[in-house]
Every structure is written in C-alpha cells, then in structure tokens.
Write a structure and sequence with these properties.
The chain has 366 residues and is of the alpha/beta class. Helix content is 43%, strand content 19%. The protein has 14 helices and 12 strands. Helix 1 packs parallel to helix 8. It binds guanosine-5'-diphosphate. One of its GO terms (cellular component) is cytoplasm.
Length: 366
Amino acid sequence: MLKLGIVGLPNVGKSTLFNALTSAGADAANYPFCTVEPNVGMVEVPDPRVDLLAEKVQPQRVQRATVQFVDIAGLVEGASEGEGLGNQFLANIRDTDAVVHVVRCFDDDDVVHVMGGVDPARDREIINLELALSDLGVVEKRLEKAKKSARGNDRDALAELGLLERLNTALGEGKPARVVEANDEEQKILRSYNLLTSKPVLYLANVAESDLPEGDNAHVRALRAAVESSGERADIVPISSKIESELAELPAEERTEFLSSLGLTEPGLHTLIRAGYKLLGLQVYFTAGEKEVRAWEIPVGAKGPEAAGVIHSDFERGFIRAETVGWEDFVKTGSVKAAKEQGLMRSEGKEYVVKDGDILLFRFNV
Ligand code: GDP
C-alpha cells in the first residue's frame, strides 16, 4: 500500500486537503493491520479498469489498490530543534513512502499566513531546511560512530564514511539527501538510514478556485522556478483543496457536473494518486476470479515471480508461470474466457516483465 505523508507549513491547507481526500474513505474494517488514527486516512485508488473487470466477472468481492495518507501537522520553523510539536511529527514522516509537500499558492486575506505573506519559494525552503536539519542530526551521530570504528580499520565503517561525509556537507547546506550521489552499495546503506530528505517528494500547489482548470498563477510559477533552480526534478501538482473539500461534500451524482463547471475532468484526488504512483514507479496488475477481482500494486519493471510475491511469498518461491491476458486483449475480446478461447492468453515465465493492467493467474509449486 502506497503511504503518502502530507507536509507543509501551518495554514496552507493540509487538513482541508486531507479531510477532502479521505472523506470517502476506504472501509477501515477491510484493513485490520492498519492503525486507525485521526491523522491517517485510507483511500481506494479509483480505476475504471477495476470497474470494467468487476462488471464482466461479477465477483463476490472487489478489492482496489489503496493509498494511505498521513497528515503530518506541526511542522514549523525550528521543528528540527523541537519547536512547535517538532520532532514527534518528523518521526511520522519516517514510515511513509513519499512526501506530498503542500505549498500555499492562493491569496486570501482572511487566511493568515504564519510567515506574514504568501511566498511559495520561501515556504518550501523553510520546510526543506527543517527536514534537512533533522536528517543532519541523524547523520552527525552516525558519522561520529563510523569515524571511531574506521580508526580500527572496520571495512564497513570505512565504506560508510565517504557517504556520510557527503551527506553531512549537503544537509549542512540545507540540501536534501536525494541530491547526494551514491553508488549501488551506498544506496543500500542510505536506505537503511531512512532519512526524511531521501524520500521522493512532489509539490502540491494549493491554488485558488479561480486558477482552475490550469492551476497556473504567479505563485505556482515562483514555486516551479524555485524547484528547478535547486536542481530538484520534482513534479508540481496544482490542486485547490477548497474545491476538493466542496466536492467531497456533494452527493456522488452531482460531482461530475460540479467538476465540469470548473473545466475539470476529474477530482484532484485522482491526479494526486497518479502523480504518487509515477513518483514511486508503481503500477498495478489484476487477478480476476469469481471470488475476487483485485488490483495489486507492483514496481514498474517487476517480473512474474516478484508480482506473484505481492500476493504471497509462497507464490514467488514456487513460481512456475503466469497465465496472462493483456489489458487490451481483455477489452478487445470482452472477457478472460473469450481471450483464452481466441488464443490470446499467454503463458509467461520467470523473465516476463509484467505490464500495467495485465490480468494474471499464477501457476506455482507449494
Ligand atoms: P493546515 O494548517 O495546513 O492544515 O491548513 P488548513 O487546511 O487548516 O487551512 C487553513 C485555512 O485556510 C482554513 O481556514 C481553510 O479554510 C483555508 N484554506 C485552505 N485551503 C484553501 C484554499 O484553497 N483557498 C482558500 N481561500 N482558503 C483555503
């Protein structure tokens, strides 16, 4: 399950967005392994392909992919030193897959800006600096330890030292760990530190209703310029959290009309989830049985056994082959059965690179 942390300065629209995104909510009872906390919300990934599969197969159960949003409040200037609610909140970011950094890009005199005025470049920098400083604390401790061990010619410590020194310099300059170069071995070490600034990030520009549908204004352009000049290749997704919250309150049948009155074709939630999948290089494949039609999340490039392993590790270990119907063949023939009859079901082996939307049935040894 994709887990996205929502960060940003106070009063930029995080909670408004979080509440809107999670209001439809996935039924928590279906996810007994997930902690239910007020700042954690689960959303089913909207996917018309799942609807079509379910319509054709008429299964007893439909299980969509899910995304968990975590509203990380309390990040203010000085948070890394324990200001505001400080470090406790930074810790919440550690177990997310990626960060959605909300930046205020709307003008509204009625909404106080904690830093005095709307300035997306400055806001972005404040948050990024707090995250970098928090990571710097972690890196400094590790560096001290590695230096001691390296004196004893500990090989692992020596290998780590170079990486830690580069991280130390970058973070000390307020740069994120993401931009630090690391070879494959160092990447592995880096992952084990679980630094906040090594997580993939996307910027959510919270724009005014009048900026839709393009979501472009001077603040968004300033944010884009700041992101580009820092060398970060992060996406900027413009969304109006106010519109999202109004949308969430409407009955389902009125939403399409409301969206089209704004020139939009889909809710911001869909745009955001797609951006999150792209950011993390994720895609889905489907299983389609009479009991259950289900979407499974896998990394782009995953081969048959890895895809099978998402269902159960036994499937991965005992993988023999995957009976596969490509999404286009499914649509063309109208059903898995028809695709099979027309010879469009392929038998794929261990080296098969699974494609987005593939319908798979695994054969495996137990
Ligand atoms: P948070 O502190 O970042 O969680 O911010 P909130 O979501 O609580 O929003 C702070 C204030 O800004 C609230 O009064 C919201 O109604 C308002 N607000 C949030 N998003 C928008 C927006 O897109 N446009 C306008 N005009 N106001 C917004």
